[in-house]
Structure formats: structure tokens, C-alpha cells
Amino acid sequence: PGITAEEFVQQIDSANLLDNKNKPIDKLLQAMGKTNSPWISIGFDGCILYRLVPEAFGLQAHPREKATTASGSRPLLPRCFLGLNSTVQPHEPAVPANRRQANLSEISACSAESDDADAPGFAFFQLGELQYARRQNGREGWPENDDVERAEFLSWRPTGFNLVARLGPSGARAGGHGIYAIYDMFPRGDDDYDDYLDRLRRRRTTHPFWGIPPIAKDGNEEEQFSCAKLGDRLSDFGKAHRLVWMDKIEHPVELVRVVRAGDGRVLRATVDESTRVFGGREGRGTETGSED
């Protein structure tokens, strides 16, 4: 069964995404996997319009050189749930050394040994791709009605950012904890439709223009970041909403898999990439005790 844009927003804002009895996540994933899933208006910034195209697996955990071992391990949650380490960069920084923050380049080189318990960040549920379109003649805001919108032949393009819903401390509900935009440093190739091949073929972004939102591409080099908060709830957005990028993280961040603890918390995990791509099956992660 399909799902409307309104139902999608309501589920993200209010449902217990890890409810094993009612399983709202199953309905969401089914709807997000359809080619005709409804898109959601996110807002505008001048003549730039933004929308969310639902996609549950757009981002992937960043590869690490080796796994961190521990005495106990738990099954990994599906890849629609990931974690962000905000002070750890992925390997092979995408910016020249003279533009990187010195203290973080050191951390980047040893991210495989980093202790996630000490790494600020959060766990999240993936919402989908953030796309943009530019209105004709510099008009500001969304068209007043669908007829005008169709007449303008809006051309939607990817921003390079994906939207995610931050999970609360219990890991159950996302509503009210923040909607964030995360730049995809390991984007999917145009021909990577197979799940197994997708995870093998993705390559690290190395061009210097990563993390620049559309409105800033006319020369504002200061507007470059890997993560920003856009609001508290998905219902905060809409065609009348003026988009503001807040709490920006200027350096690349690391994305990791997550596990669920016995008390229900979602913990960021350290994962051996080779154990979770074999045969397209989910692997097992090593819990590091990171509380979000």
C-alpha cells in the first residue's frame, strides 16, 4: 500500500520507529522503496526551492581500515538507521590539507581506533534525498498553485545532501529531536542499482565543491559544510517555510552503523566492512557504548 506525504510526515514525527509489535518501520520502508513515493516540500531560500524525495538507504556507513574488537556484540540495525560521529572525519579527506582543520586531520587518520563513546554525534533514521529547483526570472518562494508550478517546468536536481531524523535518547522516536541535512561523501553511482554492488562501488568524494548548498554556488566559499540542522520536526517544513541552515559542521563527518542495546538505546557501532557486504547480508557490529 502507498502512503501520502502527510502520512509520511506524521509517522516520522510521532511513531516509535523501533516498535516490534506494530512495526511502523515496515510500512515506511515499503513506501520509501516505491518509485512513485510522494515527495515533501521542505521550503525555499529566495528563488531556490527544496523538496525531500524519500529514500531509506541513500547514505551508507563510511569504511574503516579495521574493526575495533570488544567482548560483546549485537546485531546491527538495518542501514536505514545510522550514526554520526561529528569529531571524526572519514579517511582520505575531501579537502586540501591547507583547508582542513588541523586538529581534525589528526583524528581522521586514526578513525578506526577512535572510541565512539567519546565522539559527539547522534543516531538517526534516513529520510531521503534533498533536491532543489531554481525558479524562473528570480521569483522568490514556491509558485502559488500547481498550475503555475507545472508551467514553470521546474527542473529538480540533487543538492548532494540527504535529510535524516535524529533519534531521541531512547532510540525510539525521532519527532522533536531534529531534522538534519548530511552531505553524502560516498555518493551512489548512476549505475549502482544492485545493493551489493552499490556498497562496493561507492567512492569517496574528492572534488573541492562538496557541501556547498545551491544558493551559495555563486562564489560564497564560506558556505561549505557536511552537516546542518534544518528544524526540529518534519512537520515544521512546507512551501511557506524559509530554509535556514543551522548548527553547521564545516569538516566532513563520519557515518557508522548502529546497534540496539538491551535497554532500548541505539548505540553507534564500529563495524568491519567485510563482514556486512558478503552476500548482501547484514553483518554484526561491535558495540562501543556510545549513547546518543
SSE blueprint:
Layout lengths: L4 H10 L9 H9 L7 E6 L2 E7 L18 E3 L5 E5 L16 H8 L11 E14 L11 H6 L5 E10 L12 E5 L11 H7 L25 E5 L14 E4 L4 E3 L1 E3 L5 E5 L2 H5 L6 E8 L1
Antiparallel strand pairs: 1-2, 2-5, 3-13, 4-5, 4-10, 5-6, 6-7, 7-8, 8-9, 11-12, 12-13
Q: How would you characterize the overall build of this protein?
A:
The protein is an alpha+beta fold. It has one domain (5-291). 15% of the residues lie in helices and 27% in strands. It has six helices and 13 strands. It has helices spanning 5-14, 24-32, 102-109, 146-151, 195-201, 273-277; strands at 40-45, 48-54, 73-75, 81-85, 121-134, 157-166, 179-183, 227-231, 246-249, 254-256, 258-260, 266-270, 284-291. The strands form two sheets. Strands 1, 2, 4, 5, 6, 7, 8, 9 and 10 form a nine-stranded antiparallel sheet that branches. A four-stranded antiparallel sheet has the order 3-13-12-11, with no helix packed on it. β1 and β2 form a beta hairpin.
